[in-house]
């Protein structure tokens, strides 16, 4: 597709929220989900942006996720807690878990919250950024259904298993890392299918395990590092499975119902998340932390680039730049999502 339709964040937010409400979502669920989807669309992570509202609305209608979940939180120690998401959409549970982690971190310096009986939560950076906006460091992980092969493996085993970390920077937007442990997110494969675009090389394989750039033939992803160094991504994916699922009581990746499973749209999936908040004032101290972050980023951005006319960037720099650009140009919307939202 050579031309893209663009819409403002306000319009997209209204249409997305209304679509979720029309599908039966509670006001709290619809608001949290819309907020997380817009975060991804605004910073350029379109694979996890408003396009996912189509799937979420279908899952609400089918009964796989509850329309009005009753979240249950339990403090298990001064700095630890669990959230039972009651089989609702993961965005609502993750925002609540981060709120709880921040409350504990303000008291003890650290808050760690496990989430169970949840579902897909979109881009995990949406929740890590909430910590940075509160002046704390946020770390968020989530497991997901198996669609990434192991290093030298012949079938999918781990999920894309994202991890995000956000850190506050005085007077600037947060330092932000938001990444999958696979070569690319599988939602990007679905986006490329919608757009009719080929995949990058060395990121996906077909059902027989052969590398492919055909988005329609892609059956599984390669772990981060690709064919040569995928053991690194596979190891990170395992770490996230342990934190998000084994530690919380959620279902491990190879036993999870596929997100796009069409034969069973009624059974909840029990995805897990793990959320940490850290209060810098309880470690090195606020003033020292702010000064060191400024010094670190000043030195980092001063490193010469190998590309003439360009500069090196810290994690988050590209995303925040994209967000500023999209305030002016609007957010691109793929044809399927545009049709669903009646744009």
TrEMBL record:
Keyword terms, alphabetized: Oxidoreductase
Top-level taxonomic group: Bacteria
Pfam families linked: Ldh_2
Gene Ontology MF annotations: oxidoreductase activity
InterPro entries for the chain: Mal/L-sulf/L-lact_DH-like_ah, Mal/L-sulf/L-lact_DH-like_NADP, Mal/L-sulfo/L-lacto_DH-like_sf, Malate/L-lactate_DH-like
Keyword Mitochondrion in annotation: no
Transmembrane segments: none
The UniProt record lists the keyword Oxidoreductase: yes
Family indicated by similarity: Belongs to the LDH2/MDH2 oxidoreductase family.
UniProt-recorded name of the protein: Ldh family oxidoreductase
């Amino acid at each position: 597709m050579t031309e893209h339709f663009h819409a403002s964040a306000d319009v997209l937010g209204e249409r997305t929220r209304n679509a979720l409400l029309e599908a039966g979502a509670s006001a709290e669920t619809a608001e949290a989900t819309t907020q997380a989807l817009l975060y991804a669309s605004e910073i350029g992570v379109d694979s996890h942006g408003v396009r996912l509202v189509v799937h979420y609305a279908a899952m609400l209608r089918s009964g796989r996720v509850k329309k009005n979940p009753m979240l249950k939180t339990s403090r298990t120690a001064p700095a630890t807690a669990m959230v039972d998401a009651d089989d609702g959409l993961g965005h609502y549970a993750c925002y609540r878990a981060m709120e709880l982690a921040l409350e504990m971190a303000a008291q003890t310096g650290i808050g760690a919250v496990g989430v169970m009986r949840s579902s897909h939560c979109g881009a995990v950076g949406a929740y890590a950024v909430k910590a940075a906006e509160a002046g704390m460091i946020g770390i968020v992980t989530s497991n997901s259904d198996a669609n990434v092969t192991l290093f030298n493996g012949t079938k999918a085993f781990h999920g894309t298993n994202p991890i995000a970390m956000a850190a506050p920077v005085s007077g600037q937007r947060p330092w932000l890392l938001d990444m999958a442990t696979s070569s690319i997110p599988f939602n990007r494969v679905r986006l490329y299918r919608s757009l009719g675009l080929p995949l990058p090389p060395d990121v996906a394989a077909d059902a027989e395990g052969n590398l492919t750039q055909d988005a329609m033939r892609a059956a599984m992803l390669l772990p981060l590092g690709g064919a040569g160094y995928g053991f690194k991504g596979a190891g990170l994916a395992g770490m996230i499975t342990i934190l998000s699922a084994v530690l919380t009581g959620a279902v491990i990746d190879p036993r999870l119902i596929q997100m796009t499973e069409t034969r069973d749209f009624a059974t909840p999936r029990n995805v897990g998340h793990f959320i940490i908040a850290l209060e810098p004032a309880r470690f090195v101290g606020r003033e020292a932390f702010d000064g060191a972050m400024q010094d670190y980023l000043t030195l980092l951005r001063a490193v010469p680039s190998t590309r003439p006319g360009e500069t090196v960037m810290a994690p988050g720099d590209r995303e925040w730049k994209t967000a500023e650009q999209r305030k002016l140009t609007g957010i691109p919307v793929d044809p399927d999502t545009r049709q669903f939202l009646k744009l």
